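Dissemination and training. As part of the outreach component of the grant, students in the summer workshop were shown how a complex can be specified as a set of sequence lines and then modelled as a single object. The example used during the hands-on session is reproduced here so that future cohorts can follow it. Participants entered these lines:
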Amino acid sequence: MLNNFCFWFAALVALGASVLAVSRRNAVHGLLWLVLSLLAVAVLFFMLGAPFAAALEVIVYAGAIMVLFLFAVMMLHLGPAAQRQEAQWLAPGVWIAPGLLALGLAADLIAIARLAGDAPAGAGIIPPEAVGAALFGPYVIGVELASVLLLAGVVAAYHLGQRRDRSLGEGAGSG
Amino acid sequence: MSIHTIGVIIKDWLIGLLAGWGVPVELSRLLIEVLTWAVGAALCIIAIMLAALVFIYLERKVSGYIQSRLGPTRCGPVGILQSFVDVIKLLLKEDIVPAEADRVLHTIGPILFLAVSALAYVVVPWDEGGTVAGKVDAGVGVLFMAAVGSMGLIGIVVGGWGSNNKWSLLGAIRGAAQMVSYEIPMLLALMCVVLQAETLSLAGIVEDQKGSIIAWNFLRPWMWLPVVLFLISGVAEINRTPFDIPEAESELVSGFHTEYTGMKFALFFLAEYGNLLLVALIFSVLFLGGWLSPFGYPDPLRLPGIIWLLAKSLLIVLIVMWVRWTLPRLRVDQLMGLAWKLMIPAGFVALGVMCAVIMLGWA
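and obtained this result:
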C-alpha cells in the first residue's frame, strides 16, 4: 500500500513537473522543474527495483547535466525581454502539433499496456552488482564504444580550451 | 545495548500498545514504519543543529588559539553560551528579500541546501545495525550518498541566482564549478574503499574493517593515497578555506549568501556545519573503522559504537579547522587546476593500485 502510494505520488510529480518545465517562460524556472521531474523519475526507478539506475539518474542527470544547463542559463542572465520573447513563441497555436503527437504516443502506450495484460513491472530488485556484471559481460562492447565517445568529447574540450587560451594570451600581449 | 536493539524494543512495545487499543496489526505496522521514518528524519535534523551549535563555538575557540586570541569569553563560563546567543540573534533578525530578487527561489535555496545535507545522514551507520535507512544502505548506500551529495549545489545555485546580485551569482557559479570538479576525485577515492570492502553499503564497509585498529583501512598502504584525496576533496566539497572561493569575502562580499539575513542565513550556516560533520563521519566510516573500537571487536571497554564514531569524527573536524586557520585561500584557477590536473589523475592512479592489489591477492 505504501509502495503504491509512493509510486503514484512520484508519477504525479513527474508528470506535473514535466508540464511545468515545458510551459514556464523563465528558463531557470523551467530547468528547475525539469530537475524535479528527473528526481521523481529516479524515485520511480527505485520503486521498480532498479536502485542503481535511480542513483545514476540523480548523479548524472539532476546532479551534473542539469547543473551545467543551469550554469549556462544563469551566466546569460536573461532579463524580462527574453521572457516576453518566450511568451510570443509560446502562443496557443504552437501547442497543437506537439500536443497531437504526444497524445498519439500516450494512446500507443496505453494500448501496449492493455495488450501486455498484468505483467509485473520489474523483475524484483536488481542490485548494482548485477548491473555491473551485465555491463562488463555481454554488453562490454557497448561500454567500450561509450568510452570512445567520451574520449572524443574530452579531446574536443581540450581543443576548445587550447584555442581560447591562445587568444587570451594574444589579447593580453597587445593590451 | 546497541541502538538497533533499543529500536526493536520500542517498536515491539508500540505494536503491543496499538493492538491493545484494537488497531489491526497490518495498519499498526504501517503506522510504525511511517513513524520510524519521521523520527529518523527528526534525529538527522537535530544532529545537524547540535553539530552546528558545538562546531561554531569550537571553531571560534580553535581559531582563537591558533591566532593567539581568546575567542568568545563573555557569555557564560569560557563563552560556552555564545552559540545560543547567536541563535537568538539570528531568530530575531528581520528577514529581508531584495526588491528585485526572485522571491520564491530566494526562499527555496537555503531550505534545499539544508534538506539535502540532512538527507545524506540517513545512510550513516551510527552503530552496529544503527542506520536510519538500513534497507537503502544495504543496497546502494555509497551511491545514495554520492547522489544526495551532488544535489547540494542546486541549493547554492538557486539561492545565488534568486538573490539577483552579481556577487551572489558569481559565488554560486564558482560553487557549482568547484563542487562538480571535486566530486570526481572524491568518488574515485570512495571507489577504492568499495573495491576493498566489496560492498556498496556503508555499514558493510565498517563490517569489513572489523577488528582492532590494525584492521582499519587507513593502515593499509594502498589506502594512503585515497585517504589524502578524500580529505582534500571533502574539504573542497563543503566550501571551507582553503577552498572557500564561492564565498570569498575579500572579493565577493560573501558569495552566494550575500543577500541573506536572519534564519535563511542561519539555514545556510546550519547546512555548512552539517556538511562538515557529514564529511567527518563518512571519512571515519571509510578509513577509521566507523563505530568500531580501536581495541578490537567486540569492544573491551563496552562503550556504544556511536561514541567511537563521534570521537573519530571530532578528530577529523579539528584537523579540518586547523587547516582552515593555517592555510590561505586558493585562487580560482589554482583551485580548478588542483582538481583536474593533480587530484583526478592521482585518483585514477589510486584506483589502478587498488585493482593491482586485488589481482595480486593482497587485499
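Chain A is about 80% helix and 0% strand. Students were then asked to discuss how this feature might be tested experimentally.
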